[in-house]
Specification:
The complex is a heterotetramer.
Chain A: E1 4-7, H1 21-49, H2 65-90, H3 93-118, H4 129-161, H5 166-200
Helix pairs in contact in A: 1-4, 1-5, 2-3, 2-5, 3-4, 4-5
Chain B: H1 7-21, H2 35-67, H3 78-81, H4 86-123, E1 131-138, E2 141-146, E3 155-158, E4 160-164, E5 169-175, E6 180-182, E7 191-193, E8 199-203, E9 209-214, E10 227-233, H5 235-246, H6 255-266, H7 269-272, E11 296-297, E12 302-303, H8 306-314, H9 316-319, H10 332-344
Parallel strand pairs in B: 1-5, 4-10
Antiparallel strand pairs in B: 1-2, 2-3, 5-8, 6-7, 9-10, 11-12
Helix pairs in contact in B: 2-4, 6-10, 8-10
Chain C: H1 19-29, H2 36-41, H3 45-74, H4 84-119, H5 127-149, H6 174-202, H7 215-247, H8 261-295, H9 302-316, H10 331-361, H11 368-391, H12 393-399, H13 403-433, H14 439-465, H15 482-512, E1 543-544, E2 559-562, E3 570-574, E4 581-586, H16 593-608, H17 615-630
Antiparallel strand pairs in C: 1-2, 3-4
Classes of the chains: A mainly alpha, B alpha+beta, C mainly alpha, D mainly alpha.
Bound molecules: heme-A (2 copies), dinuclear copper ion (CUA) and copper (II) ion.
Dinuclear copper ion is lined by residues 137, 140, 180, 215, 217-219, 223, 226 of chain B.
Chain lengths: 204, 346, 640, 113
Amino acid sequence: MIQKTLDVSELPPFSVSNDDPLWWGQMLMGVIEVMLFAIMIAMYFYIRLSVDMWPLPGDQLPHKLLPTLALVPLALSFPAAWVASEGAKQDNRGKMLAGLGLNLALAGAFLAMRIVEWHSFNFEWKADIFGSVTWTILGLHTADIIGDMGFTLVLFVIVLTGKYAQKQRLGVHVDSIVWYLVAGAWFPMYVVIYWGPTLVGAPR
Amino acid sequence: MSGWRKGIPGGMLAAGVLSTACAGHQQSALDSAGTQADRIESLWWFFLAVLSAVFVIVIATLLVSLTRGHRGVNQEPLERTHVPSEETERNLGRTVGVATGVTIIILFVLLVASIGTGKELSEIGGKQNSLIVEVTGNQWWWNIRYLSEEPSEILTTANEIHIPVGRPVMIRGLSQDVIHSFWVPNLHGKRDLIPSRVTTEWIEADHPGRWRGQCAEFCGLQHAHMALWVVAETEPQFEAWRHAQLQPAAAPQDADTQRGQQVFLNSACVLCHTIRGTSAAGSVAPDLTHVGSRLTIAAGTLPNTKGNIAGWIADPQRIKPGNHMAVVPVKSEDLQPLADYLESLK
Amino acid sequence: MTPIIEAPGETVDPRAGTNEEHRKKLERAWSRPGRIFGFFTATTHTAIGMRYIITAFAFFLAGGIEALLMRTQLAFSNNHFLSADRYNQIFTTHGTTMMFLFAVPMMEGMAVYLVPLMLGTRNVAFPRLNAFGYYMFLFGGLLLYAGVLTNTGPDVGWFAYPPLSGPQYSPGKRVDIWAQMITFTEISALCVATELIATILKMRAPRMSLNRLPLYCWSMLIQSFMVIFAMPAVMVASTIMLLLDRTVATHFVNPAAGGDPLLYQHVFWFFGHPEVYIIFIPALGFVSSIVEAHTRRGVFGYPAMVLALAGTAFIGFGLWVHHMFATGLPQIGESFFTAASMMIAITSGIQIFCWLATIWTGRVRMHTPMYFVLGFIFIFVMGGLTGVMLASVPLDWQVHDTFFVVAHFHYVLIGGAVFPLFGAFHYWYPKMTGRMMNETLGKIEFWILFIGFNMTFFPMHILGLKGMTRRIYTYPPEMGWDNANALATVGAYIIAIGGILFIANVLSSRKTGAPAGRNPWDAGTLEWAADSPPPPYNFEYLPVAAGRYTMWAPAEARAVVTGMRDDRREVLVTSIMDAEPQHRLVLPGSSFWPFLTALLVGGGFVGTVFGFNWYYPTAVAAGVGLIGWFWPKAPRDLRP
Amino acid sequence: MNRDTVLWGALLLPPVIWFLSMETNFALAPWACAFGWKFAMFVVSGISFALNAGLALAAWSQWKSLGQNWPGDEGGAIPRAGIMAILGMMIAGMACLVTLAQAVPEIMMGACQ
Ligand code: HEA
Ligand code: HEA
Ligand code: CUA
Ligand SMILES: [Cu+2]
């Protein structure tokens, strides 16, 4: 025989906010990616410390201009993602579209600059360990960025068609979290890859 | 539950222990013949004593807890409340706290003992009068070089190391291909041989004898057959051995061995093997200049006899399937002379 | 004890109607479309959990058969039962199967089944991700065994050190198959870890504040965080370093081009050591659950137990170099890892002491699950103590890579994880099937397993000290290792007999076991409030927590949740610390997309074994799958 | 700094601090031998120990302000916060203990051995 009840009928059947478990799902996925990058950066230092010269003889240190410029659209993509996320919470279609669209455009700009930059590398991943670790870190991070952009694009299209409900708004809201983590992880990695050799000196 | 039944596994353990304990003392960490192995063995017995005592206490507590009559606690109506009295919990808290404290102390004692031994081990060796032996791991044999400042004193052999008793010997470890591990338990722990790196350890025999070692890092198909022998002898004996090893190969004395030498020099053997004093100067296989003097062939796989040498040459793949010595076709009438020749290279 | 809900005709929740109507609506909301299609679209945690358990057990049998084959070859010196190549493939596959295809997925599967029930909710937070993870695990295992059965099984040890596993010394597809199989199982583990964390933090029964969380749920929460932090490392080691070196000629671990084989070891073991605690920590949760029910009291020292779990987890990330003591690293550096490895014994010790205290003051009932707990204590403590020996650098220099280590890890793995697992099988079988297992047979199983295990692995300590190295397909007679090896082989067959008895018990009890009812053990946690076996929706009315052991609370203190919709898959989201209800959540129903996506992505990964360029179509396939997965369906009804 | 922040901090930060200090010391080992920087290891360990001891104290003071009761399984925010405080104390304490244990090799071993 039941004695007591706890009635929850007054509670909403959804919550487009950080209270939803999906926030945790996205956050953990972002943490996994960041962990991956952290290990790769640790590897970068390990490899660097196991040789005398860095970059290895024959390899040219990647030019700093383009990647530094690329930081601008990347940084601007953060407030764009935030706008989309707030728009989702407020059920504001215009804000969502603006935020998602701007985020995509800025991320695309970042990506384009990066791909242009790659053409100027004078070393391949199979040339030596400097090439291997540099290309692998860049490749992995780019794959993550593209994947996240893919998610964002799908959400953008869904919002565009207008056929979305609370569930999709939640998706827009939490999509930004992975972006913050994956794109945010780039800033320290940028320092390591482009400034590391200069700052920490070449011959050991 | 009756306590005696827990003794059954104990009996089995004893059977297992006895059946191996009475085996020979080759390649054993429990039969130290060197300074380093000795230190480690002492540490081992200390750890074993302390941790066995811990084990006995824990299991005894378990058995008692199952069989005791729960006096006092019997009064607590656990079936209904599922919560023991505060006094019980307080007593337990104290006991667990003390046990944890004791555990921490024991662990720090073991830690200090372990670090102390490690420190001691690194302080032995490096003294005057030491010998440097460079060991290069290959799939599935050991290239041995005795280093010296005099180029004419550098000695190359394979699969067997001789050392003088009482002198510290530095084993300088390299690898030609994959990761191997140099291990002669009667003398010291192991050291991995890692390509592109140099690892070192010091050994020092404290009495004459011969001990078997084995590669202790999985290195492919014939990892199971990558053994070696270390022979410790008195200083004069060692000098004699070293001097003999530095000489070029003995010239064949009779027709049979001369024929054998001819067969060798005309076969593919020379592409891989070196016999100093002849034209054979291959460098990817064991140096055969004094192969007759070794205790075993094929890295400890077979005792060194004429029959085994012949069998090895005839079909090395049968003895060590997958090893890197090609099957060189040797006519059956040439086989014995060849084996005789190699056996004569003492 | 009286269950919460009795009478069908009664009305608990005015919104839901009578209990009968309520049940019918729940059944409809949680049902599956048809038998075959339903099978591939299932997303309930009990269905997916059960699949994990059965598949992982099948791999356990495969690993066990491999073990028997190895032991037969090693039974006496110079044996010719297996060739060198065959033996090397078999020991590698045995280790790989047991670690990646049995131990971790089994622990994940048990958690997927038990955690939502123990938390008092209806499903995990991400049901489709759950299904996807399972299919990835299955496909990974099939990939490996496709290789094994076509003589392309890996043969480089379960951790595949380069350069041996690199392109030069291991040509062919063997190692590639191994490396990509890891990707599958790693994705699977990450999926489960993600959903368990989200579920345990956000979907608990109301009022199940953190200090009331069952110890098993603490275990799984902590273990899941370990998975999140450790698994990326194995991906870097196997898929990035090894596979890229092998397929696109990078030079991470190629010594000829400046790469360092030790780098691989560091990254692998950074994952590898936490991996063994990932296997072990859930078992500790099993032990606590079983001990509580069999001593009629809660485990003593709850905060200390939680600390011990958390301490083991975090210190566990600082031990990895103890697998590399023989590589010539600076001793002072290695000694840091000795110190940490010894300190972790404190956390295990605390657990043992608390359980002993619980047993000491509890009203002990000796049923089969409790036997396995006692076996665990005996075997695991011995294994843990040999671990402390291995933690010492000088000692490890002698026994590293010998059968002494094999003895240690089988003691801790089988004693520390498999014995609690078998106890858990016996303990939760009534919940999963509605029937009790045979007690007498269970006790016989236990003794055969216990005796067989010690007979097999105790002599290995001596063998290691007497010079028997690991991973050798044969050994010469003059070493004197014959007797101990023969004894070990006999023991292995005895273990197999125990395993067969267990299977017989499982199968026969389905038909002839005594009906179990909801709570045959009179245990305290919430899974025992559901029917046995639980319906797809677990509970008719979600329970409210009344302490750590709601089922032991007096009936007056217990409550249920009302006001939820029963015509759709609705669950309750609660706050992290105090489990105050925050909002309701509608979970997705059956879906074909997880299976399809796993098929596409899995197929793509299999392709990458043959060429790097397969990654591109795999990405596209993943995209297609995910779009289908997330594309909004016809107007989803989200009215309150 | 509200109570929950302190509670979560004492729970989550000590492992991170300990791990970072341990990795730093491990990475320093070859340099300690080459350049005689062993004292740097003591500095790192000291900082880590001090930080974790501080966190343990913070957790302890929270526990005191909650009434210093050994929490059972009563419902409500106070017992739950109590257990978090106790766990924080113990985890920070454990991190200190491990740092101490790792100082033993620093004290006993020479850098180049
Ligand atoms: C379930 C898995 C599991 C668990 C829990 C452990 C637990 C431990 N392990 Fe083990 N280990 C493995 C699985 C596991 N291990 C595997 C698979 C390998 C080999 C991998 C390979 O090479 O293939 C391995 C290898 C391994 C090595 C490397 C050996 C080598 O290759 O040379 C070392 C070295 O330090 C080690 C140490 C420890 C220690 C100190 C513990 C501690 O956590 C144990 C703590 C427990 C206790 C100590 C017992 C209970 C405590 C008490 C009763 C309190 C009182 C105690 C004292 C006072 C000491 N393990
Ligand atoms: C969870 C992990 C786990 C488990 C449970 C086991 C279980 C067993 N292991 Fe294993 N083992 C490892 C993990 C594990 N192992 C690892 C990681 C390695 C290292 C690999 C490497 O070096 O790379 C290893 C290595 C290893 C070796 C060393 C090989 C070598 O170095 O050369 C040996 C040797 O005896 C061994 C033996 C056994 C035995 C006899 C069992 C027994 O417990 C098995 C029990 C038997 C069964 C469960 C079968 C029972 C059932 C049947 C036969 C019936 C079948 C019925 C049907 C199909 C209907 N194992
Ligand atoms: Cu060389 Cu094993
Ligand atoms: Cu480990």
